[in-house]
Amino acid sequence: MKKLLILPGNSKLNEIWGEACARFFHKDFAYIYLMRYEHWITEGPINIPLEIEKIANTVKDGEADDEWYVCAKSIGSIVTLLATKEKAIEPKKCIFFGMPLDIADEEAFNDDWSPLSDFSVPMLVFHNDEDPVASNEFTKTKLEEMGQNVKFIQLSGTDHTYRDFSSYQMEIDKFLK
């Protein structure tokens, strides 16, 4: 069964992005799971190990022939890299929006870039050229330097919202085939 795991950005406001993402992909997947982070309730910082555990529990409840895809925004893309490294999920393909690799270096990877350099899953990355949260230039450079199977699409934009799914549809449809 073709399944989609949606991992939104850090802020609870990203729940709206996740819901829009689920509506956009509803016709492409038999099952969609939208991750709602624990820290949205507790109002503390994101607990990445806890979220990886939740991913592992979600995936293990499936069937052996399940194919998991991931669509993630911002910190969700970093959680995906780490969860894959820890074998909590083995996605078939990933679509990422606004990857904050500059922030991940300091806050999640601790100078260990293996979650990215070892990540061999095909990924489609959308990134605004003037994203105020995630450095476009840093992300693009790191993906070129360490990424495997990456299609990087630089968008013209000055925000970190990535809500216009219809404008990404052509590239997404080609990628998912």
Question: Would you spell out the secondary-structure blueprint of this structure?
Answer:
Layout: E1 2-7, H1 14-25, E2 31-34, H2 39-42, H3 48-60, E3 67-73, H4 75-85, E4 93-97, H5 101-109, H6 114-117, E5 123-128, H7 136-146, E6 150-155, H8 165-176
Parallel strand pairs: 1-2, 1-3, 3-4, 4-5, 5-6
Describe the structure.
This protein is α/β, with parallel strands linked by helices and 177 residues long. 43% of the residues lie in helices and 19% in strands. The protein has a six-stranded parallel β-sheet with strand order 2-1-3-4-5-6, sandwiched between helices. Helix 3 packs across helix 4.
Average per-residue pLDDT, rounded, comes to 95
Lateral strand order in the biggest sheet:
2-1-3-4-5-6
Which class best fits the helix and strand makeup? alpha/beta
Q: What's the story with the biggest beta sheet? A: 6 strands, parallel
Rounded to an integer in angstroms, the radius of gyration calculated over CA atoms is 15 Å
Strand content: 15-25%
The count of DSSP E runs of length 2 or more, i.e. the number of strands, is 6
Feature tags:
177 residues; alpha/beta
Please provide a brief summary of the model.
It contains eight helices and six strands.
